[in-house]
Design goal:
The complex is a heterodimer of chains A (472) and B (187).
Chain A lengths: L1 H13 L32 E4 L6 E7 L4 H5 L6 H11 L5 E17 L7 E16 L2 H9 L8 E3 L5 E16 L4 E18 L3 E8 L5 E14 L11 H15 L1 E13 L4 E15 L3 E12 L15 H16 L2 E3 L3 E4 L3 E12 L1 E2 L4 E2 L5 E12 L6 E13 L2 E10 L5 E10 L2 E7 L13 E12 L5
Antiparallel strand pairs in A: 1-3, 1-23, 2-23, 3-4, 4-6, 5-8, 6-7, 7-9, 7-10, 8-9, 9-12, 10-11, 11-14, 11-15, 12-13, 15-18, 16-17, 18-19, 19-20, 20-21, 21-22, 22-23
Chain B lengths: L1 H19 L18 E12 L4 E2 L2 E2 L2 E7 L6 H6 E12 L3 E10 L5 E9 L8 E9 L1 H8 L3 E11 L9 E12 L6
Antiparallel strand pairs in B: 1-10, 2-3, 4-9, 5-8, 5-10, 6-7, 6-9
Organism (chain A): Flavivirga algicola
Protein name (chain A): DUF5723 domain-containing protein
Pfam families (chain A): DUF5723
Chain lengths: 472, 187
Amino acid sequence: MMRRFIFFLTLASCCLSFSQNKQILYGFSDIPQSTLLNPGKLIKNDWYFGIPLLSHIHANVGITGSTVYDIFANDGIDFNAKLQNAVYGMEANDFFSVNQQLEIFSGGFSFGSSYEKNEYISFGLYQELDVIAYFPKDLAILALEGNQNNINRSFSTSQVSVAAEAISVLHLGYTKKVNDHFTFGIRGKIYSSIANINATKNKGRFITVRGQNNFYDHIFNLDLEARTSGIASLSEDGSDSNSVARDLKKRLLFGGNLGLGFDVGFTKQLNKQWSFDASLLDVGFIRHTKDIENYKIEGDIVFEGINPIFPDIGNGQTAEDYWSEIEEDFEEIFELDTTATKYTTWRPIKLNTSLNYAFGKKKDKTCNCVKEEGDYLNAAGMQLFAMSRPKRPLLALTAYYYRRLFNGLQIKTTYTIDSYSPYNIGLGMSANLGKLNFYVMADNFLEFKNIYNAQSVSLQLGFNYIFNKNED
Amino acid sequence: MQKQIIKYSFLVVAISLSLLSCVKDVDFDQADDFEISPVVESSLIFFEGQANRFLLNTNEIVSIKDSVTVEFFNSNFIVDNLIKSEFVFEAVNSISKEFQVRVDLINDLELQVHSFTLTASPSTNGNDVLSDHTEVFENDKLEALKNTSKIVFTLSLLSGETINQSTLGRIKLQSKAVFYLNIGEEL
């Protein structure tokens, strides 16, 4: 069990990761959920509702550095050799991340005073899981090699950086098309934290150096802290799977630690064909006040061994006394201090922006000419995504092509460069069958020939009911 | 139109699924082979004393004894993962007298499970004389170490001039333990 757990951690830190970049969905305004990525872009319907629990399912796993295949390939090479290669090959900035979202319900409708409705209200509730764990390279090497060949090498404990949260988000957004050139929107969010683990501000080091009085001085200088909320009560005595499920359900519906946040965005139509848009998502915080358990390891020790001062000739202190003092020091430093101090976490802020060029209108069959009215069938452009992460921001640059095949079928394909891979190809599609809208999108298609070799994989799909008054 | 949409949708989904189903051979059971073999070194005991510290009311102390209770060697982690150990001692003696340090390993029942000695040769001219000793723990000796809960050190003064207030020189002892670990199966 323990081994599997350590394994998972190793994997977690070296082999998998999810990003929250939804480059295919961004700007795909045929799909109502695209408004969650930019409230400042009008979505193309009169009103809609998401099929409960099926309207938006998103999963993304990513890992930088090594892949699952690097370590688990059934290639006859010694497993531990592969593991070592992975450890040596990765850096402390490599990470594993998971992001998952499930929309519980959502809906929206357009309204406005003019004949062309220019305002839109959207709302919903979704659950989100976000995990990121960095690879603590120094500690992995210490575990692999020990300190014998690493005298004078400082092992940093600040590389230990893990954040995990499960939350539910209730949101209400408003979009307004001010005129033909400018649209803006804002979305307010109430977060309810179901569970949170935050260990992102660790400091300290361990180093063995040549000593004065003995062979070595072992220097421990530690300042590690993990803050948790919503975890302690789940493992309390007397809690069973039923009570845990009941507890979680309550927290999903605002019984958890609460927070507030907002999204903002706009679209600027530069001319008939060129447009620029941008959004800032999840500018917000969660205040953790309930069910908190924080763990801390803090202190400094220099250990140079035991001096049996030989009480007969010394100051009366026996080696036993001497050793007990050292033992106490060690206990003090390594003892987990448990506190219940309230804390605040910031949600990872996401920035999306894109420059778009629309072209190619539908040809009119009756006159074999291009229709003056109506939308362009194609769009191409560049998108930039940035997201705050504990160590350094995640960046992704995407080039895309969008095509309306028919009125009820649109596709979008993307090429993305990010922390995970320089050649990530994504494909998405939205289809309307009557009023039922179905969309599915996935990326890293090039890696699908061997999914275990992929550094990141993401998938989104969902079903909506969409109503348009003047449908073709 | 509807038919075409359905047709294209199915095509896209089918292509995606066929791509997704491509998986090269991986074997997650390899995790069972997981093992790491770190080598850890740690300072052990040390002391330094001028010759005149071995006097008690102008009389030479013949032997001095001290002990340490350690719960480290018989801890589960060590018992499960330690495959070999070495205790390395280095003595520097500039006293014209030979010293001996006996190290007794004692178990929970106060029984001696292992014992070894190291000698620090005397100095003839007041210069430092180096002596070293490496005690290797393997097989039975390793088992003895894993039963150890107390270590007794006995410092004895052997042959050479009798120490008095004017005896010059000092003795210095340094030591470290080397732990060869193999962590895997027992996790």
